[in-house]
Amino acid sequence: MPNCITRHIPNTLTCLNLFSGCIACVMAFEFKYEWALTFIIISAVFDFLDGMSARLLNAPSPIGKELDSLADDVSFGVVPSVIVFSLLRETTYPDWMSSFQEYVPYFAFLIAVFSALRLAKFNIDERQTSSFIGLNTPANTLFWAAAAAQYHDWLIQGGAVLYGLLICIVLFSLLLVSEFPMFAFKLKNFSWEENKIRYLFLIVSIPLLIFVGLAAVIGWYIILCWFVRKKL
C-alpha cells in the first residue's frame, strides 16, 4: 500500500472516533441513552484502532497526536457530561432545590473539564506507557453511558439517588486527575504470573456484565485497582 495512503489511516480512524462521539452527544441531548452508549462503544473501538494502526503501519505524526486528544476530549469528555446533564434535567428535585434546580444540571460539565485536564496530563506523563495514573477517560465515559442506558428510571427518581449522583460527579472527576495507579490491558505475554490481576478482572467481569451491567464492570475495575494499587 502506498505510503501516502497508509500515513492517513490512523488519522482517518481518529476522525471516525470524533464523528461517532458527536452522534453520541446528540443522542444524549435527545435522552436516547442506549444509542449514546452504542456510539460511545464505536468511538472507543476507533480510539483503540487508531493507535494500533499508527504503530503497525509505522505512521505516527505530530498532527495525529494532537487530533487524537481533541477527538478524545469530545467522545470521552463532552459526551459523558452531556449524558449526566440530560439525566439531571430529568431528575425529580426536592423542594429545597426547586428555586435553582434549572442550574444543577450544569454541574455535570465538571466531567468535561477534568477529562480535558486528564488528557493533557496523559500527553506529558511518561509514566503511563504501560499502565494508567488516574481513571482513563474511556472507562469513565462507559460508566456514565452504561449507567444511563441501563438504570435510567432509577437514576432520575431523585432523593438520595440525586445526592449520590452529584457525589459521583465529583468523585469520578477527581479520579480522572488523581495519582491513583490503575492497570491497562497492554499485554507483553499471556502468562498467568504476569497478568493474574487482568485475568482476575476478566473472570469476575463476565458474570457482572451479564447479570448487572457494564457500569458494574467499570466499578469493579476501580475497586480492584484500589486493592492491588501497591502492585501496580
UniProtKB/TrEMBL annotation:
Q: Does the keyword Amino-acid biosynthesis apply?
A: no
Reactions catalysed, as given in the entry: a CDP-1,2-diacyl-sn-glycerol + L-serine = a 1,2-diacyl-sn-glycero-3-phospho-L-serine + CMP + H(+)
This entry's Gene Ontology molecular function terms read: CDP-diacylglycerol-serine O-phosphatidyltransferase activity
User: What GO cellular component is one of the record's annotations?
Assistant: membrane
UniProt keyword Transmembrane helix, yes or no: yes
Q: What EC number(s) would the UniProt record show?
A: 2.7.8.8
Keywords of the record: Lipid biosynthesis, Lipid metabolism, Membrane, Phospholipid biosynthesis, Phospholipid metabolism, Transferase, Transmembrane, Transmembrane helix
Q: Where is the signal peptide, in residue numbers?
A: none
Membrane topology, record value? Multi-pass membrane protein
Q: What is its main location?
A: membrane
* GO BP annotations listed: phospholipid biosynthetic process
Localization, UniProt: Endomembrane system
Q: What class of enzyme is it?
A: transferase
What are the TM regions of this chain, as residue ranges? Answer: 12-29, 103-120, 132-149, 155-178, 199-223
NCBIfam families for this protein: pssA (TIGR00473)
The text of the family note is: Belongs to the CDP-alcohol phosphatidyltransferase class-I family.
Q: What's the protein called, per UniProt?
A: CDP-diacylglycerol--serine O-phosphatidyltransferase
The source organism is: Bacteroides cellulosilyticus CL02T12C19
